[in-house]
Amino acid sequence: MAKASSAKTINPNEAAHFGALAAEWWDPNGSSAMLHKLNPVRLGFVRAQIDAHFGSEETSMKPLTGKTALDVGCGAGLLCEPLARLGADVTGVDAAAENIASAKAHAEQSGLEIDYRAGELSGQGLPKFDLVTAMEVIEHVNDPKDFIAQLTACLKTGGLLILSTPNRTAASKLLLVEAAERFDQIPRGTHHWDQFITPDEMIVLLGDAGLEVTDTQGIFFTPLKGLQLSSNMALNYILAAKLS
Question: End-to-end CA distance of the chain, in Å?
């Protein structure tokens, strides 16, 4: 199993880019509009994996009661808050202090208790968690292998890891980078195509860290249905892995 190091995974330029968007993070029509469209799709996958992994009932309103969850690269809390509503004791970590300030303010307004922290994951002195998530984060870090090792170090034995990221394909370069940024669907400079990781590469990274991938699905867009879970992983994918 890979050992977590204290190496810095935060890319300061990436942190500054996303920190500058903090004020609009919760605006569904603002610079994070695409995340608001993506979040329900991701949540559908997350909920299904929670039920499958922890044996919770699909009808349960709080399947994470008694469980702890960590969202890494949490932004202003777009995933942390739903996880808290599902019953989890939630911690969110983000590279940008501006995002954490926005996350704390929104959680207070929502009446939710979430432990938000800014800075390097390895420097937080965190315990191990039942569930660890990292959505659209790994493509922004300095060292993906070290980042995976740090995520794994935060996971309990038998725990569940869920992450999503863009795939490195010709389609993602055209649509997620060139077209989406050119037509202001996402802020300029958000994506760097050469930092995208393919599903096969991700499986190797996770395997080296002692994780077994249990499910992988694409997140694809069609004009009729919008963003949806799909077998097509040409643009983006989301996966679940367990630590044995």
Answer: 11
